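Lab notebook: predicted structure, single chain.

Context: the supervisor wants predicted structures on file for every construct in the current expression panel, including those that have not yet been purified. This is the next one on the list. No modifications to the sequence; it matches the entry in the shared construct table.
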Amino acid sequence: MNLAVSAKLLARPGSATVTPAAAPDFWAQQLKRNAASASGESSNPRSNPRSNSSSKPRSDPQREKKRELNDLVSRVSGSPGIELFNAVEVGVPTHVVHMIADATGEPIGAVMDLIGVSPTTFRRKEEAKERLPDVAGHRVMGYLRVVATLRKLLEESGDPQAMKTFDVQAWVAQWVRIALPELGGKTPAEMLRNPEGQRAVEQVLERMRGGLVG
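Prediction complete. Output recorded below exactly as produced.
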């Protein structure tokens, strides 16, 4: 009887949960944001015959990817949990892996290893224009949350002058591969496999507050 009542309560109008069907918007909207930002910062020579590309400074590809990654990290830190859950459920697009590699300066193979995807699987998914398996999605989201935590700590306790030249993405990319006693000798990258490990990594960062920027 109680189970039946509970089932009816869960089935009441207005109590339906959000389905993963809307999750692709998270990644699609991110692509649109990146495109809009890029078009706003620089004009397209093809669309403007009068433009002289030689008179304009060339854009820095890595700097652009850093901006895109920063924007994605901001979205992750500001999005509700259900939206991030759905984003992982539908799978992370392969272009996100390329973006992380370009922004951090890490070889793409190193990023594949970080998220637990073999080069063969990644290549097959990319050629088929399919999303990565959820195990990779959990690690990608965990990595983005670690970057978000670090950035927040830096904003709260970092030296404003030092932060201007502090490369958050590059620091995290190297730090996640260091075996830490606080994590039982494991690397932060290994701990990104599940939410509990991700939280443990965030706790280590929080204990490092004030000593991140030298």
